[in-house]
């Protein structure tokens, strides 16, 4: 199991235990050092006592140092343990007097010995020993000289005592870590109970219940709950879009599909080739209209404010899009005998928007103009830049029959159609799509006519992208 897939409780406990173990290890190292120092201090006093007892028995007779070693002093070191004790008495010049001649000498860093005793560790006969050394004067009537006393003791008792102290401290540390882990384990369980209650509440919800989560949760997960609420909001908008699309498609496609079926059945029964050709023409026209209706329904779903296309806007060149869409419609305009052209700026016009939706907006405006204008008309797509107001104005102008005054306030409604033979080709969605796309870009589409029944002018004003967004990437 990968680390990131483990339970949160386990991860938190391990995250606590690792630094706690590191700190405990450092503390045990300090305890070990203190235990060794404390043990040495206690046992070194006994070494010093033995060395002083031997030094007190050193005398100078006839110019020669003699020693009466008090073995009782040495027995004090070994009476309570199995450690062995060694001693040595020598002159300051290193001349051996008595004891164990091969005892490790005093390290050079302690030489020359003074009145203060010194203690050091060494190896003697394959064992680690602790040695205490001191220097004293002995004098007679005619002479005075300095001598050294060394007392060594094996370190078995010292080592066992320091190990006992360390083991006791380690046991306490382990117990503390175990208790801390248990407290954290159960404490985290208590802390996660609000999340468990939140889980139960979400499990009780129906798939269609996308209301925001209003449960009281810890501060640490409020951002997560906020993100889930935002996701719920987007899902709800997507569901509304799909429901609207489904309802519109069911309502609008039922009639043309039924008509197609009827025409097809008539064609199957008809024997006259001329009538069959007429029926096929009718089916072809109905198919084109139904296909156009389906495309408009899809475009309407994408353009809806609550639609799936609610992604962040990008920096786009409105001039490039406008010229490309206008150029793509030229063959249709030539076929219908309409003069379609582009006027305005040729430099990049940067705005923040959705390129796909802007293309759909312009295609609908140009398509409407080419559909409802008679042969010989002129349609002009114009793009102007108002630097003073930081705006880019897109205009589609034609000199066709225009829209009657009584219908102008309703032409932007969904599925609104004018009861006129000239407008039979439409499905009532084109201008509503234009309006919704404009609203998505926080602007409006404006319809004007120079005079009654003398063409239409649709204009949309877009905010220019900020200067830093207009820089080329």
Automatic annotation (TrEMBL):
Signal peptide as annotated in the record: none
Protein name per Swiss-Prot or TrEMBL: histidine kinase
Domain Histidine kinase: 248-466
Gene3D superfamilies in alphabetical order: 1.10.287.130, Histidine kinase-like ATPase, C-terminal domain
Stored CDD domains: HisKA
PROSITE patterns found in the cross-reference section: HAMP (PS50885), HIS_KIN (PS50109)
Species whose genome carries this gene: Thalassospira indica
Enzyme Commission no: 2.7.13.3
Subcellular localization: Membrane
InterPro entries from the UniProt entry: 2CSK_N, HAMP_dom, HATPase_C_sf, HATPase_dom, His_kinase_dom, HisK_dim/P_dom, HisK_dim/P_sf, Sig_transdc_His_kin-like_C
One family name in Pfam for this protein: HisKA
Enzymatic reactions: ATP + protein L-histidine = ADP + protein N-phospho-L-histidine
Domain HAMP residue range list: 189-240
GO molecular function, one term: kinase activity
Keywords carried by this UniProt record: Kinase, Membrane, Phosphoprotein, Transferase, Transmembrane, Transmembrane helix, Two-component regulatory system
Predominant localisation class: membrane
């Amino acid at each position: 199991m990968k680390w990131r897939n483990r339970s949160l409780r386990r991860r938190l406990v391990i995250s606590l235990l690792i630094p706690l173990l590191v700190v405990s290890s450092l503390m045990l190292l300090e305890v070990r050092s203190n235990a060794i120092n404390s043990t040495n201090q206690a046992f070194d006093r006994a070494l010093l006592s033995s060395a002083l007892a031997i030094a007190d028995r050193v005398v100078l007779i006839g110019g020669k140092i003699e020693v009466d070693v008090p073995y009782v002093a040495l027995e004090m070191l070994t009476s309570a343990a199995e450690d062995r004790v060694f001693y040595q008495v020598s002159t300051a010049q290193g001349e051996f007097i008595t004891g164990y001649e091969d005892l490790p000498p005093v390290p050079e860093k302690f030489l020359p010995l003074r009145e203060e005793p010194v203690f050091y560790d060494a190896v003697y006969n394959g064992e680690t020993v602790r040695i205490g050394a001191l220097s004293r004067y002995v004098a007679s009537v005619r002479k005075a000289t300095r001598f050294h006393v060394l007392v060594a003791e094996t370190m078995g008792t010292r080592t066992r005592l320091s190990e006992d102290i360390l083991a006791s401290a380690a046991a306490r540390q382990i117990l503390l870590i175990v208790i801390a882990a248990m407290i954290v384990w159960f404490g985290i369980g208590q802390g996660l109970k609000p999340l468990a209650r939140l889980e139960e509440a979400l499990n009780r919800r129906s798939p269609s219940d996308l209301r925001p989560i209003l449960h009281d949760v810890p501060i640490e997960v409020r951002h997560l709950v906020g993100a889930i609420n935002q996701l719920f909001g987007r899902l709800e908008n997507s569901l509304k879009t799909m429901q609207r699309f489904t309802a519109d498609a069911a309502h609008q496609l039922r009639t043309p599909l039924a008509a197609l079926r009827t025409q097809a059945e008539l064609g199957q029964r008809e024997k006259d080739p001329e009538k069959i050709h007429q029926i096929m023409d009718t089916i072809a026209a109905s198919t084109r209209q139904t296909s156009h209706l389906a495309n408009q329904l899809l475009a309407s779903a994408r353009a809806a404010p609550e639609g799936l296309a609610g992604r962040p806007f990008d920096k786009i060149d409105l001039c490039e899009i406008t010229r490309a869409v206008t150029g793509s419609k030229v063959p249709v305009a030539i076929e219908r005998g309409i003069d379609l052209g582009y006027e305005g700026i040729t430099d990049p016009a940067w705005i923040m928007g959705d390129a796909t939706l802007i293309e759909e907006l312009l295609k609908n405006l140009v398509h409407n103009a080419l559909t409802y204008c008679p042969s010989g008309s002129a349609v002009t797509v114009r793009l102007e830049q108002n630097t003073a107001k930081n705006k880019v104005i897109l205009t589609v102008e034609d000199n066709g029959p225009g829209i009657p005054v009584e219908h102008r306030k309703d032409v932007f409604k969904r599925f609104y159609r004018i009861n006129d033979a000239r407008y039979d080709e439409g499905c009532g969605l084109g201008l509503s799509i234009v309006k919704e796309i404009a609203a998505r870009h926080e602007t409006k589409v404006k319809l004007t006519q120079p005079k009654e029944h003398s063409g239409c002018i649709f204009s949309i004003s877009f905010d220019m992208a900020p200067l830093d967004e207009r820089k080329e990437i």
